[in-house]
Design goal:
The complex is a heterodimer of chains A (463) and B (129). Chain A is built from 14 helices and two strands; from the N terminus they run βαααααααααααβααα. By secondary structure, chain A is mainly alpha-helical. Chain A is globular. Chain B has a domain at 30-110: Cytochrome Bc1 Complex, Chain D, domain 2, CATH 1.10.760.10. Chain B is 53% helix and 3% strand. In chain B, α2 crosses α5 (97-110) and α4 (71-79) packs across α5. Chain B is elongated, with a radius of gyration of 19 Å. Classes of the chains: A mainly alpha (463), B mainly alpha (129). Bound molecules: protoporphyrin IX containing FE (HEM) (2 copies) and fe (ii) ion. One protoporphyrin IX containing FE sits between chains A (43-44, 47-48, 50-51, 54, 69, 72-73, 76, 345-346, 349-350, 353-354, 358, 437, 440-441) and B (56-58).
Chain lengths: 463, 129
């Protein structure tokens, strides 16, 4: 025990504070958030194993790489989904200052989404799947996720109808986001023989979930949090929210074009994809500006708010860099022609999906689970340490991937060298990626540990 | 608020419309190619290979593989899978002969889909010859 005492985690990390009355929906949202964080911890362990599998030849593994990767991709979408469901319930209740339409329905929804997600991961580990990238599980299981999303949509719409004249923009935007998640997943529960349609529909989840639906739910959270923590005043936030929501819908939808360049679609998509993608970036710029001004204005915050902010600011950072700027660069058709389908894509995918959405969901989940407590100095320090490790790991991993991708694009795509030969030259980069992944996983486990302790401490006695 | 909802539903409807128009196939898909697509999905080939550049990065892009190798070469590879370098023992996943044949039909069909000049190195090879 002594040996480990340099770790700030051991000992007391949280102290209780009095909390205001809590709605049932906010209590239920805790289980969503805790499940999301747990699955995230599982993901980085699976991922590091996969990354090591890629650099050590003949590594024995109970699950072959192709199905391990499928589980990793399944987790990448599903834990942010579960976390988002919790966040939406929590922050809609906070925004409207009232209970949701039906808390029991929210409980059912939780069990359905968790059971079907676990069924997807279990069946994949027995090599049973449907082989569509990011949606590798059996289609029926995604039907289950749809049912859960349908319950959520119904519950939220009824909630909004109950308050009719006092619907706040953030509440409405989050609800629309959840409905879009449902609408976009539904067409992915059937079999397409046409490979073009198949590919096009897949991006409704791969692109539109992240760059439209989650963008809406995230915007709702950001708006609520900025008002609560005094980063910006309500009027300003709501102006941004309207702009962000409209641009996310229009830009997000037609921006899907940047995935439709080479899949057999007509050339007009090259134009749509590249021009509309520019629109996607605008609201992020304004968000950065607003955040910057907010940070300069108010100085003293509670440690809990500060830790939430560290996570949220990480998200904003990757939103503007890894997602928007890098995304825009690879959207240019002449660039995309060469780097499409190389490790550059993987670098962007990690920076954007985890960097932007992952950090944001973690930030919301931490905020929700730590309600009614305040980190001790020790707890705060360990949280910051976890955030630093996650960032260092992610940056290490992504830079290695981008470097590998650039080399791959040049040698294979541009010079036309043999693929196998080029791949053997990428080993060093993939090794560094695995190292970065290990640091990342360490940060992930630290954060998970801290959140576990917080969760235990803030648990309310059963009523 | 109402404007936002209207905007959302209209853009979405239009979007679905153009996608349906855009995804027309250059020629009808043969029965065997459809069977082959199911084989492709069942064995999760996409985790290591790309089609149209979308998929995993471990293996080569297979969009135009049938232009580089003959059907019997590919079928043979799949029914008697060799060791994949840099491994010394681990083989490529294998298929039954019927599945392998259907799969080749699917890949042949894929290579007939026009991809606007992607992948780029194929274009270069074309210019040299
Ligand atoms: C939060 C925002 C974003 C997330 C979560 C995200 C996520 C992803 C993911 C997961 C992929 C990989 C898809 C695959 O493997 O097939 C991808 C690819 C891509 N993203 Fe993003 N992205 C975001 C923002 C953007 C933005 C703002 C742009 C452009 C302005 C962009 C442009 C692209 C392009 C062009 C590709 C295709 C790469 C290729 O051709 O292989 N992304 N993105
Ligand atoms: C410990 C950290 C992680 C490691 C070591 C890792 C490793 C990997 C590996 C080995 C692949 C397969 C790439 C290939 O086919 O060659 C992959 C793909 C992917 N991972 Fe991760 N991953 C990590 C964390 C994450 C997180 C946290 C997310 C998102 C929440 C994520 C999202 C993705 C996505 C979207 C892809 C597909 C990329 C593409 O198709 O371009 N990963 N990752
Ligand atoms: Fe995208």
């Amino acid at each position: 025990m002594k040996l480990l005492s340099f770790l700030p985690f051991l000992g007391k990390t949280q102290k209780p504070v009095v909390r205001k009355q809590q709605f049932l929906a906010q209590k239920i949202s805790r289980r969503y958030c805790f499940t999301a964080v747990t699955l995230f911890a599982l993901q980085s362990v699976v991922a590091v194993t996969g990354a090591i599998d890629l650099v050590i030849p003949d590594l024995p593994s109970p699950i072959p790489f192709e199905f391990g990767r499928a589980i990793h991709l399944g987790l990448a979408d599903l834990w942010p989904l579960i976390g988002t469901m919790g966040m939406v319930y929590y922050f809609i209740t906070a925004e409207l200052d009232r209970e949701i339409y039906s808390p029991p329905l929210a409980r059912w929804q939780y069990w359905i989404v968790v059971l079907f997600s676990l069924a997807i991961f279990t069946s994949l580990s027995f090599k049973i799947g449907n082989g569509r990238e990011f949606l590798e599980g059996l289609p029926v299981l995604y039907m289950g996720i749809c049912i859960s999303l349908a319950l959520a949509s119904y519950n939220l719409i009824r909630t909004l109808f109950m308050v009719k004249n006092n619907i706040t923009p953030a509440a409405a935007v989050m609800t629309v986001g959840i409905i879009f998640l449902l609408l976009l997943l539904l067409p992915n529960t059937i079999f397409y023989s046409n490979p073009i349609t198949d590919e096009a529909t897949k991006f409704w989840v791969v692109h539109l979930w992240e760059e439209m639906a989650f963008e809406l739910t995230s915007a709702g959270f950001i708006a609520t949090f900025y008002v609560v923590s005094g980063l910006a005043d309500r009027a300003k936030v709501e102006k941004w929210l309207y702009l962000e929501a409209s641009l996310a819908v229009v830009g997000g939808l037609y921006g899907t074009g940047h995935h439709y360049y080479w899949i057999g679609f007509p050339a007009v998509w090259l134009v749509i994809g590249s021009l509309v993608s520019i629109v996607e970036v605008i609201p992020v710029g304004i968000l950065v500006h607003m955040t910057y001004k907010g940070l300069k204005s108010k100085k003293n915050r509670s440690r809990r708010e500060k830790l939430t902010l560290w996570l949220l600011l990480s998200s904003v950072f990757y939103h503007i860099t890894g997602a928007s700027l890098l995304g825009l660069l690879i959207t240019i058709p002449w660039v995309n022609l060469y780097m499409h389908g190389t490790y550059v894509t993987s670098g962007h995918a990690h920076l954007a999906l985890f960097g932007t959405l992952g950090f944001l969901v973690l930030s919301g989940c931490y905020y929700i689970l730590s309600r009614g407590s305040e980190p001790t100095l020790k707890g705060y320090k360990s949280g910051v340490l976890a955030v630093i490790l996650l960032n260092v790991g992610l940056l290490g991993m992504a830079s290695a991937l981008l470097a590998a991708g650039l080399k791959e694009s040049y040698l294979w795509r541009y010079l036309g060298m043999d693929f196998e030969q080029v791949r053997l030259q990428l080993n060093l980069y993939l090794f560094i990626r695995a190292l970065g992944g290990a640091v990342f996983a360490l940060g992930d486990l630290f954060l998970f540990w801290l959140i576990c302790k917080t969760w235990k401490q803030t648990k309310l006695p059963k009523r | 608020m109402r404007t936002f909802l209207l905007l959302s539903s209209l853009s979405f409807a239009l979007f679905v419309g153009i996608i349906l128009i855009s995804s027309r196939l250059p020629s009808p898909m043969p029965e065997q190619a459809v069977e082959g697509k199911l084989v492709w999905q069942k064995h999760n080939c996409i985790s290591c290979h790309t089609l149209f550049g979308n998929g995993g990065y471990v293996g080569e892009d297979l969009t135009n593989i049938t232009r580089k190798e003959t059907p019997s070469q590919i079928v043979n590879y799949l029914i008697k899978p060799p060791v994949v370098p840099p491994n010394k023992y681990t083989h490529h996943p294998g298929l039954a002969i019927k599945d392998a044949q259907n799969l080749v039909h699917y890949l042949e069909f894929i290579s007939t889909i026009p991809t606007l000049g992607w992948p780029p190195q194929k274009e270069k090879a074309g210019k040299e010859s």
